[in-house]
Amino acid sequence: MSSSARLCGVTIQDRRERERAERHQLIIDAARDLAEQEGWDAVTTRRLAEKVEYSQPVLYSHFKGKDAIVRAVAIQGCGDLARVLREARPSRGGSRLRAAAEAYLRFARERPALYDAMFVQRSDIPWGTDEVPRELLDAFGELVAAVEPVRRDRDPEALTEVFWSSLHGIATLVRGGRLRPVHDDTRLDLLLGALSLAQHEDGL
Amino acid sequence: MSSSARLCGVTIQDRRERERAERHQLIIDAARDLAEQEGWDAVTTRRLAEKVEYSQPVLYSHFKGKDAIVRAVAIQGCGDLARVLREARPSRGGSRLRAAAEAYLRFARERPALYDAMFVQRSDIPWGTDEVPRELLDAFGELVAAVEPVRRDRDPEALTEVFWSSLHGIATLVRGGRLRPVHDDTRLDLLLGALSLAQHEDGL
DNA sequence: TCCCGTCGCTAGCAATGCTAGAAATCCAGG
DNA sequence: CCTGGATTTCTAGCATTGCTAGCGACGGGA
C-alpha cells in the first residue's frame, strides 16, 4: 500500500482525500444554508442528506453526530464574525467601539441561525484554556482591539468580556422579542457611553 | 346542570375545577423539577406523565403542547426572579444596583434550567405590548428600581434594558463556559462601574 | 480476470411529540 | 340500589427524529 502510493506519486490517495474534504465542507455549508433558510429545527439528518445528495450514514462517516455538524458550522461562523469585525471601520464621527458594536449586532440580526449555533445553543466547544479553535480567538481578538481605545487602566480581557456580554445579551433578547425595538438606538448609545466612561457625554 | 349546581352550592363543579387547577400546577412543578434536576432534554411527555402519575394525554388536556408547559414554567419563573430581586438588599457598603446584579446572576447560576426556559429558549410569550404576564412586568420593574439610583438623566427603560442585557449576556456566556471564571468579579465590577458612570471610581 | 477492501445505501431501531378511539368513571334520576 | 349519558382517562398507535447494522456494489492491485 505504502510502496504503491510512493510509486504513483500519492495521486489516488490524494484525490480521495480531497474529494472527502470537499464533501466535508459541502455538508457544513448545506447545514448552515438550511439552518439560515428554515431554522435549525428543519436541519434533520434526512433533509441534510437529501440536500448533499447522499444518504444519512455518509454524514456519520464525516461527523460523530448532528451536534458535531452544528459545532463545525459554529466554528466557521466565528471565522465569519471575525472577518466582519475586522472589516468594520468607524463611519464618519463614530468610534471604533461603535463600529464594532454595530457590526456585531448586525451579524447577529442578519444571521440568527448561525449566531445561535455559535453562542446560544449548548455545545462542547472548548472555550476554556486548551484547544480553542483559531476562529474563536480571532473573533475575540477583534473585540479586544475594538475596546482598546476606551480601555483606560481597565483589564483588557475583562473589559472585552463585558463588552461582548452586553452585545450578546442585547442580540439574544432582541432576537427573542424581549426588548422594545423602539429603544434600539438609545440602548446602544447608553451602552457605548457607559463603557467609554463619559469621555464626551454630548449624546446624553 | 346549572340549576343543580345552584341548588347544591356549586360544590361538585367547584371541587372538580379545584382538583383540575391543582393538577395543572402539579404538572408545571413536575416539569420544572425534572428540568432542574436533569435538564430540559429529560423532560419528555412520557417522563412527565409518569412523574405526575397520569398518562400523556392528560397533559394535553391542560396544555396545548409541550411548549405551553415550558412557557408556564417560564412565566412562574419570572415570578420567582421578581421575588428574588425584590428581596435583594444591598450588603454592607454595596449599592442597590450591585445587589440586584448579584442576585440576578446567582439566580441564573443556581437555576439554569429555569433561566433557560425564561430567557433563552425560543418561546412565543408576548413581551411586546399586549398581554404581558404580570410576573414579567414585576421582574422588569425590580430591575428598573435597581437602576434608578444611578439613572441620572438617562431614559429609565432603555437603561434598564442595557443593564438587563448585560446581565443576561454574562449569565448565558458564563453558563456556556464561554467566559473565564477568573474574571467573574472583575467583570461585574467593570459593568457596574461603567453603568454608574464613575460616581466613585475607587475600585478601578 | 479475479479478489479484496473500501464505500455508500437500504432497512431498521429506539425514542420523541402528539392523537384517535376505546374503556372506565362519575353523577344525576328512577 | 341500579341505570343512562356524559365526561374523563387510558391504551395503542402514527409520523418523525437521531443513529446504526449489515448488505451490495464499485474499483484498484495481482
From TrEMBL, chains A, B:
It comes from the Bacteria. Residues 21-81 form the HTH tetR-type domain. Keywords: DNA-binding, Transcription, Transcription regulation. InterPro entries: Homeodomain-like_sf, HTH-type_TetR-like_transc_reg, HTH_TetR, MT1864/Rv1816-like_C, Tet_transcr_reg_TetR-rel_C_sf. One of its GO terms (molecular function) is DNA-binding transcription factor activity. The keyword Amino-acid biosynthesis does not apply. The keyword DNA-binding applies. Residues 44-63 bind DNA. PANTHER family: HTH-TYPE TRANSCRIPTIONAL REGULATOR BETI (PTHR30055:SF234), HTH-TYPE TRANSCRIPTIONAL REGULATOR RUTR (PTHR30055). This is DNA-binding transcriptional regulator, AcrR family.
